[in-house]
Hints:
- The chain is of the alpha+beta class.
- 56% of the residues lie in helices and 17% in strands.
- The protein has nine helices and ten strands.
- It has helices at 8-63, 67-78, 156-206, 220-295, 304-335, 348-365, 384-400, 431-434, 458-468, and strands spanning 83-90, 123-135, 141-154, 343-347, 369-374, 379-383, 406-413, 417-424, 472-478, 482-490.
- It is rod-shaped, with a radius of gyration of 59 Å.
- Residues 393, 397-398, 401, 424, 426-429, 437, 443-444, 454-460, 483 line the site of adenosine-5'-diphosphate (ADP).
- The site of magnesium ion has 5 residues, from helix 7.
Amino acid sequence: MNIAPVNFRQLFYRNTMAGIFALVVMLVFVAGLVIAKFTHDQTYLNWQYYGKIFASEVKYQLILNSETGVENIAANFTDRKNVIAANVYDSSNRQVNRKRTSRVCREEQDTWYSNLFPSRLDVFCIRQPITQTVNQETGTVTENKIGEIELIVSKQDNAALMFKIWLALLLLAVSVLFGAFRIVTRQSYFMTVTIEQMIAALQNFKDSRPNNRVTFSGSDDLDQMRETFNDMLASIERNEEVLEQAVILKTKELNQALEGSQSANRYKANIMSTVSHEMKNPLHSIQTGIELLFEGIPKTAPDYPSYQEHHYRAKMLVQELVRHIDAILVNAKLNAHEYKKSYTLVHLDGFMEERKVGCQHLCSKNGNTLVLEDERGISIKMDRLLLRYIVDNLLDNACKFTNKGHIFLRWRIHQDTLIIEVEDTGCGMGQQNIDIIFDEFKQIDMSLTRRYRGFGLGLAISRQSAHLLGGNINVRSQEGLGSIFQVAIPINGQ
Ligand SMILES: Nc1ncnc2c1ncn2[C@@H]1O[C@H](COP(=O)(O)OP(=O)(O)O)[C@@H](O)[C@H]1O
Ligand SMILES: [Mg+2]
């Protein structure tokens, strides 16, 4: 529910006062109308009675046919206050008294509401027939109309009285409204002081200030409300303390765990690099040994081609092992956040050519063609080693997972971003695998009998490197059709 932007007290006060005001105005109006109607009708009845006396007094003068008599009686009645005219008519409606008045009685139209409201004419018009009782020989009595009297009476006094009555009613209404105002103000205070105190208490409670309890009291229910409200605040306070303690404890535990995991990470990186170094050193000796042994075999020896093939295979295997160990070393370094970036000017043409040469062997071994579709002449400032990790791993995968197909390497600058794309027409992968391939040691086929070699570090290294450069890698792939890996690295301010 939406309440207008006033506080509860104003709302209560405004609405109640408006209601009382409307009620009082209505009551005063109705009372005024009833009183006006009553006084009007009573005055009319009085004047009707007066008209009857006039008719009976003038009756004998009419019978005697004395115009002077009629004149005198009519003049007598005209003298009465408020009487504008007192006229006498004979049976043929001729005015008998000579003193005429310009005032003529108007008949008011009869409507359904004319009985509810006093007449709006400014005079009372009273007409009374003058009748004579005739005794017939047969003994029957008949009333013969021998004339009519007419009284025109001003309503001035009546209007003055009504004015006073309206005034009195208005005074009454004002005093009632004033009384109501006092009561409503007091009532609205009682009604809303509780809410206001609760709001203030909650505000203080929220801001951790003192005076955050309510103190109002009065009736039983108010006392109960106060106690329940204060109990609730106390309980929240207790819960808050308990929670605070729990949070402090958990934060301590988390910090300890974090420290533990950080030192474990550092420890892991140290071990990894020590182990890798220790593995690489003997490999170098093995490589040198293989070379020396091979050089010692005379080219004229009967099995020379077979020795040559073994020598080549051994050399390749040692190189692959060195590459794997390097990958473990690089991954450990990136994980331990120990890599220090260094930006140098990289000419992308030469850089990409080098990448092509590096993977050419694997590429042709699988019968693939690697095409460089490029934008020539771009040079940017970049961490060369991180960029190399990214492109080498993507190319390595494309060559590895494509058989007798095509691999495209593209690069361009678009809106201050270096975009590199490696597209292949290889085995591709399902959408469900795209989310996991960037995780360390994750491969789609993790069985021991898998076709492809490697242990799932290449994409993890590529992604970490892209993130370190402030960029990201996206993949679009379709099983059986191929994949596109797109790298975006911002080069702003270079
Ligand atoms: N171009 C690609 N085509 C198909 N699958 C790919 C491609 N690149 C990566 N993958 C999938 O992602 C996995 C993880 O790749 P990567 O991290 O480089 O590890 P690895 O090459 O050692 O398997 C791969 O084992 C392979 O299943
Ligand atoms: Mg790989």
